[in-house]
Design goal:
Helix content: 10-25%
Radius of gyration: 15 Å
Number of helices: 3
Shape: flat
Number of strands: 5
Strand content: over 45%
Low-confidence stretches: none
Structural class: alpha+beta
Mean pLDDT: 94
Distance between the termini: 16 Å
Amino acid sequence: ITFVERYSSYSNQNDNGHIEDAVSMSTKKMAQWIETQGLQKSYDYSGVTTEVITADIDDISDTSAVVLLSTQQILETYETQEVIQKDGRVDLTRVGNDWKVSAFYWD
């Protein structure tokens, strides 16, 4: 849940802080992909705030898990605001004693 809210909440004026936050919660392979997803800074503000509404464990084993999520996103620009609902999936992999995000998909 924390990964989705941090990675999917961003603006084009926050110096890609969401990328930094998400990398620490991810497997090495996922972190490499996340680091390619940075936003270009702009003086014309746009941003997204994401809140996870529901999270359901779809599958779990000793080494992996799949979590299905429903979110609400607020999409903002300097002049507009729109609220949308979005569903997604997070794949988790156990790395040592920690669960790390190995994949993230929007439906």
